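wait is this the right file?? whatever heres the structure
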């Protein structure tokens, strides 16, 4: 996909030149945290910052483990027009109240400055020993819109209506589809009708997001997470059954105009300001939730991620091309919430994720970007134990289920722990993708964040995690060499 206008390109070049100029002072890494709704972006960002600021256990993050990281601190962020990531509130919720953050409703940004000592003598004597890490958090829904950038209104309409007719969608789309069938796209434009269709269409998107584990990935993302654009015309449109391009003044033309406005007012600036300037990317996917919902959800996740990832510029930049346009030179694919499984199953989770993003991995390698795939828990909510049942020893996990979660017919109150055998992922990762297989038999209970131990002095220790340090090493290790 290309950014379509010349001005976009020009602005990007200028922004990147600006970054470079300032970069002469302190090197900066813009890390893209990419993931659909509920994938675990906000928790990941919070855990990353918390571990670096509070001396977390990060043995595989080499510069840090070697004692070369002198400190990390939040600093004023570079973009004045974007709210600050509310790190303190998220930490307080996680650590003090043992609550997960709410779904993100607005964009926010943070800058973490890492002070370090270079491993090489030469850099140590000349190097600045500082690295800025800039990260943006946003509602996962918005990411779905990147697929729209290269789609015309006619193509999008056709695709969306076809999708709504598929078995998993049809029952929920019935009211909207029935109304559409009675609408003549060539009739005169009509604001009341546009509103009615947009409302019915949004209702369908909303139901899809709350059924089957809420894994539906139909854009436009702002219909469900409008941010500050609620009720604006750019958000009041719907696909239509189109005969042709529609005459001037027709409903079809009106809808197409609004669709294009949505792209130029909402999607393109979001992409240009936050994604087109990334240096590195971590792509988070809730593979376990998709596995739990079955092969259709896996297929949906696969195609949504492919659509999203095709929007990014990958590749190692030569000094000249790197000067003109920034490219993503490292990309890490991560299956989040791995603490829901016993560690014996983490390899299988990685294998399934690897299959899911295989095409994106190929593309990245072709562009000579460095790629890795990892199962991770940003915040580890469980511990492991072996439980013996009827003479059989089962690798189990122990955690506190969220209030209202059910395990074996028992409803939990949020204060009681349970030991649970989560089940095994399929040995053969292909099995998860076959349309005729049942959902994977893994028990997926939502746990509360962990209770943190305190030191003798009453200080809380850092948030526990699984392989957050490996992720940090991949994403930042070479920058602190
Ligand atoms: N057990 C466990 N649960 C996690 C972890 N990370 C995320 N979760 C769960 O996943 C939910 C979603 O995580 P968020 O970080 O809010 O996801 P997000 O990608 O920011 O979602 P949006 O803001 O909706 O786009 C949380 O409320 C937790 O229930 C983890 O490391 N371990
Ligand atoms: Mg979030």
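ok assuming it is, sequence goes like this
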């Amino acid at each position: 996909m290309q950014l379509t206008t010349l001005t976009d390109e020009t602005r990007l070049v200028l922004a990147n030149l600006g970054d470079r100029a300032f970069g002469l002072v302190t090197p900066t890494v813009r890390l893209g945290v990419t993931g659909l709704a509920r994938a675990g972006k906000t928790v990941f960002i919070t855990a990353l910052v918390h571990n670096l600021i509070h001396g977390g256990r990060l043995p595989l993050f080499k510069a840090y483990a070697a004692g070369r990281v002198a400190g990390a601190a939040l600093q004023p962020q570079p973009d004045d027009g974007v709210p600050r990531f509310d790190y303190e509130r998220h930490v307080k919720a996680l650590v003090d109240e043992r609550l997960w953050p709410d779904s993100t409703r607005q964009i926010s940004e943070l800058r973490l400055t890492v002070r370090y000592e270079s491993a090489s003598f030469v850099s140590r004597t000349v190097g600045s020993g500082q690295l800025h890490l800039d990260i943006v958090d946003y509602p996962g829904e918005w990411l779905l819109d990147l697929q729209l950038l290269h789609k015309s209104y006619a193509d999008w309409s056709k695709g969306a209506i076809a999708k709504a007719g598929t078995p998993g969608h049809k029952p929920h789309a019935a009211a909207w589809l029935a109304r559409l069938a009675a609408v003549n796209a060539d009739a005169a434009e009509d604001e009341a009708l546009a509103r009615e269709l947009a409302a019915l269409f949004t209702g369908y998107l909303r139901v899809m997001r709350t059924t089957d584990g809420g894994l539906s990935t139909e854009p436009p993302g702002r219909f469900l997470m409008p941010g500050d654009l609620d009720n604006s015309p750019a958000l009041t449109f719907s696909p239509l059954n189109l005969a042709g391009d529609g005459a001037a003044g027709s409903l079809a033309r009106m809808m197409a105009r609004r669709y294009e406005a949505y792209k130029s007012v909402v999607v393109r600036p979001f992409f240009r300001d936050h994604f087109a300037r990334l240096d590195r990317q971590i792509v988070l996917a809730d593979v376990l939730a998709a596995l739990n919902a079955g092969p259709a959800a896996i297929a949906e996740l696969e195609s949504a991620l492919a659509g999203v990832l095709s929007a990014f510029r990958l590749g190692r930049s030569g000094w000249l091309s790197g000067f003109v346009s920034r490219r993503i030179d490292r990309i890490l694919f991560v299956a989040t919430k791995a603490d829901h499984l016993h560690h014996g199953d983490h390899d299988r989770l990685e294998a399934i994720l690897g299959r899911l993003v295989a095409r994106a991995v190929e593309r990245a390698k072709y562009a000579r970007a460095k790629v890795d795939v990892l199962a991770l828990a940003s915040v580890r909510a469980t511990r492991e134990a072996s439980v013996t049942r009827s003479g059989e020893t089962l690798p189990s996990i122990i955690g506190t289920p969220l209030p209202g979660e059910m395990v074996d017919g028992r409803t939990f109150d949020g204060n009681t722990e349970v030991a649970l055998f989560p089940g095994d992922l399929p040995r053969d990762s292909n099995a998860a993708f076959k349309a005729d297989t049942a959902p994977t038999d893994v028990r997926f209970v939502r746990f509360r964040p962990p209770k943190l131990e305190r030191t003798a002095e009453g200080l809380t220790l850092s948030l526990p995690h699984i392989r957050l340090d490996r992720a940090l090493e991949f994403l930042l290790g070479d920058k602190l060499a």
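The pocket of magnesium ion (ligand 2) is lined by residues 41-42, 104, 137 (CB under 6 Å). so i think its the right one actually
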